[in-house]
């Protein structure tokens, strides 16, 4: 706030402060993000160019981008993407169905929560890498073990958030529905599920990101095609740009999946924003 003196009247005039630039206020997130990305790339380039890290272990950003584009054009990288996406998608969908179904069951019945809590606490804290040999012993090194590993990594975030979301549905909503004469099926489909869905989605988004994290570990078990296999083979051959190109592809897929899940969450939970908005 700025105070000025009007000489003609001898009065003080209070001038309101100028607000932030509308353009910056609207796009500051993207501007700062772009600046941060450019700064990261420059730092990455400088570390390699000035010899702090040998290009045998870390390639320059331009070399990685060139290897990424070449891999997509000649098919050496492009052909590895779909098998990985297919495994991740199957494992994620299986975890989505089983996690939500079991989460709703356990969250709805208190006795199930008490009975299963010690066992679930044990299994959800087990390291995925520690369980890789178990999946291989039971399912071999084929597609079944890879999908099962992805399922395991995706199941727990969905299941845990589903249990918490269902068990935390406000009792006043349930009592109000019962007072109005609603049956159990109606209460479950029209009260419990809509109220629980916003609480389940964070687990679904986390599971979607876990799918590709676990996929790399699953593909290192063995196989002929996949991004994890591509990255591992490039590392063994000291093809450093190709190795980081595979990592770049994996990261871009993760960003795309997160954007898709965010869009789905935005549409599915739109009713909640309508209730809470002013």
Automatic annotation (TrEMBL):
- Signal peptide boundaries: none
List, in alphabetical order, the GO biological process terms annotated in this UniProt record. Answer: transmembrane transport
> Where would you find this protein in the cell?
Cell membrane
Family matches, as InterPro entries: MetI-like (IPR000515), MetI-like_sf (IPR035906)
Q: Which GO terms describe its cellular component?
A: plasma membrane
What keyword terms does UniProt attach to this protein? Cell membrane, Membrane, Transmembrane, Transmembrane helix, Transport
List all membrane-crossing ranges: 30-52, 88-109, 121-142, 148-173, 185-204, 210-231, 243-264
Alphabetical list of PROSITE patterns matching this protein: ABC_TM1
> What is any Pfam family matched here?
BPD_transp_1
Please state every residue range assigned to the domain named ABC transmembrane type-1.
81-265
Topology class, membrane: Multi-pass membrane protein
Which superkingdom heads the taxonomic lineage of this protein's source?
Bacteria
Which family does this protein fall into? Belongs to the binding-protein-dependent transport system permease family.
**Protein name, as recorded:** NitT/TauT family transport system permease protein
Species annotation: Rhodococcoides kyotonense
Q: What is the lineage of its organism?
A: Bacteria, Bacillati, Actinomycetota, Actinomycetes, Mycobacteriales
């Amino acid at each position: 706030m700025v105070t000025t003196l009007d000489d003609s009247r001898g009065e003080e005039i209070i001038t309101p402060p100028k607000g932030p630039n509308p353009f910056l206020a609207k796009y500051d997130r993207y501007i700062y993000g772009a600046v941060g990305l450019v700064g990261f790339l420059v730092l990455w380039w400088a570390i390699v160019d000035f010899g702090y890290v040998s290009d045998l272990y870390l390639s320059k950003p331009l070399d990685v981008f060139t290897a990424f584009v070449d891999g997509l054009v000649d098919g050496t990288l492009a052909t590895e993407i779909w098998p990985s996406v297919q495994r991740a998608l199957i494992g994620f969908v299986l975890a989505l169905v089983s996690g939500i179904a079991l989460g709703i069951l356990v969250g709805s019945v208190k006795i199930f929560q008490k009975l299963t809590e010690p066992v679930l606490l044990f299994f959800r804290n087990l390291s995925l890498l520690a369980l890789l040999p178990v999946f291989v012993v039971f399912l071999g090194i084929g597609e079944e073990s890879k999908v099962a590993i992805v399922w395991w990594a995706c199941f727990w975030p969905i299941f845990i958030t589903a249990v918490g979301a269902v068990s935390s549905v406000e009792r006043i909503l349930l009592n109000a529905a019962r007072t109005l004469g609603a049956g159990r099926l109606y209460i479950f489909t029209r009260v419990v599920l809509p109220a629980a869905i916003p609480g389940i989605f964070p687990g679904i988004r986390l599971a979607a990101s876990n799918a590709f994290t676990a996929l790399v570990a699953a593909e290192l078990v063995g196989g002929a095609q996949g991004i994890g296999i591509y990255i591992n083979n490039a590392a063994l051959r000291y093809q450093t740009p190709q190795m980081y190109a595979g990592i770049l592809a994996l990261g871009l897929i993760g960003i795309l999946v997160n954007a898709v899940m965010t869009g789905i969450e935005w549409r599915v939970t739109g009713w909640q924003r309508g209730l809470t908005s002013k």
